[in-house]
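User: Quick one: structure for sequence A, then sequence B.

Assistant: Sequence A:
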Amino acid sequence: MHYFAYGANLSRAHMQLWCPSSRPLVAATLPNHRLVFRYRADIVASEGDRVPGGLYEISAADLDSLDEGEDFPDLYDRIRVTAETEHGPVEAFAYQMRPGHAFALPAPEYLSLIEQGYEDWGLDPALLPIRTQAGDLAEQ
């Protein structure tokens, strides 16, 4: 199955710790969403925006491990997404934080994992929003 990673799991080394049989496939983007931080990375629907990420092929055992790491179903829900790649659209799943969590900057160690992931996948680090915005806070 395909997993669209956009946060700490973009770091290939971090992903290998959680999911040793996972296989990185291709950089991808998630259309009509934007990346926000609620201490941890999250995606929210946002017409016209795009979230950079990476697609992994994972096993059922990897899925169990990811669910545990993402505190599914308490903190994150698992959602179906269509990621865009240079080879066309790919059906995958991603994690989206459950409602009720305030926007907050990530811890430096967590942000470092995401920055490493951007480097691992060849993503533009300028696309990483490292701040909360007044408009974001008003949405809650």
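Sequence B:
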Amino acid sequence: MSEANLDRVREDLAVMKQAIGFRLPFEREHVWVSLALAAVGIVVAVLTAFTSIATLPVTQGSVAHLTYIVSLIVPVLLVFSGMAAVAHRRKAFAPLLWRESRKSAVVAAVAAPLYITFLVWVVWNGVSPSALTAATLFLTGLFSLMGALSEPSRRYVLGWAISTMLIGACSPLGTYANAGIMVGGWLLLGGLSTAGIMCWQLRDGSGRDAHRL
């Protein structure tokens, strides 16, 4: 049997255990990913608060403006790239992480161009990009919250759900100068709370225990 077939069998077994309630829908490695995102949040917030990167007089599209945007996005992309590398290296021991990383890459490849196209279209027709961003974040958090509350084994989603709802609600108060602090706070709160909930679920026992709640 080839390595690819073995990987598929491991993933199928993990999914079946999850479906019947004997396994939680995440791996221990997910805890480290959440903590890494929290660390990125601290770096982004500190960089914004204690450097001049967000206070320099800039014009849209200038080098300083693009540098600021890159400083908010690239660290998060690096964490997810690192997660994909770890998932591939440990796919025999954490099949759900490897399965999730592949699915996330496909979803991102499809969703990102569609959302950017939609954003350009609505802004072209007079909708405020900040209002659209706030609504998108709040609704994303709200739907995640509903999913977490409806399925006890997915309670770990509560951390990111509440954090995303909060940043969506606070987005109207955001400015160019404090955007990094808001993004950093979102990553810090979401990462730490999610890691904490995951640790609690792992310590609490198997997915079977969560399934009975």
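Residues 3-13+29-206 form one domain. Residues 134 and 183 are 13 Å apart (CA to CA).

User: Thanks, that's what I needed.
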